[in-house]
Design goal:
Length: about 350
Amino acid sequence: MSVSKSEPILIVGGGAFGLSTVVHLLRAGYKDITVLDKDEEIPSRWSAANDLNKIVRAEYEDPLYQDLTVKAIEAWQTPLFAPHFHQVGFLHCVSGKAPKEALDTLNRFRAAAERDPRMRSHLSPLDSQKDISDAVWQYKDSAFPGWNGYFNKFDGYAHSGNALRSIFLATRAQGVKYILGAAGAVSEIIYEKTSSGRKAKGVKTTGGLFYPSNLVIVSVGAAGAKLVPEIGKQLVAKSWSVAHLHLTDDETSALRGIPVTYARDLGFFFEPDPKTNLLKLCPMGGGFINTDPKTGISHAPTDLKQSAFLPDGDEKQLRELVRQTLPQFADRPFSSNLVG
């Protein structure tokens, strides 16, 4: 439907997709934009993007997607986003015990990077522990048994939680309205009948507040099926485990600038965050889906505490990743664990 630049637009959800939509609507000249989110602040704790870091890599098997990711990296280097982008590189490997499927996937990504002239010069092969320690001096005492792959200096990571915060502050200063907490906890979309069916006319919150709008944009990620039941099984509420190692100031400084380090059969981790001294790790795997056995529809948890744990299998996998790469922390407990 066509909406004039002055008509009110409601965006439900203040995560990555919601805030990205705000940025693009503002750039397109829309004036009356309101974001509703059930958390008390942005970044929302309900957003998967409210995180220390997310991998930003350009190589993908699909050429269209790869072109988009190269353009995304260019956007990360613009004033709004640049403070949160860290082009530390991507050490992409398999371990010595990786299954054939993991090696095949790695080789497809490597081939995609080698074909692209924009990143070809940034690639280095990694065929031994010496190659890895030559590329990353902090790994000189690490075993990396049987690891092989490549190092792509074109890639890196983004501090996604801080990026969300920057967008929030910048767009609020430009007139975007944010309704947070109980007043922004949307429970349903309100429709009116039309000759061809129905159309949205606003939203209602759990407390009974009504916000009118002829255009409602739903950006609530895994919770989408609750607001738009017609989505049904098309939307999958999927999550992966996240764990952290809590380091000292000196330990954090010593690992400053390490690349995103990724074994396709074990998992990956990032350089530690200097503000919190937390080093984030994620295991590789198929993830977890919260499916209602009666309907087959998956939903996001209704309470954040439901996700505050680390499954035993994932903990064992991450422990092996740490032993092979950062042996000095092999026995350090994981903290701030979650499935999200």
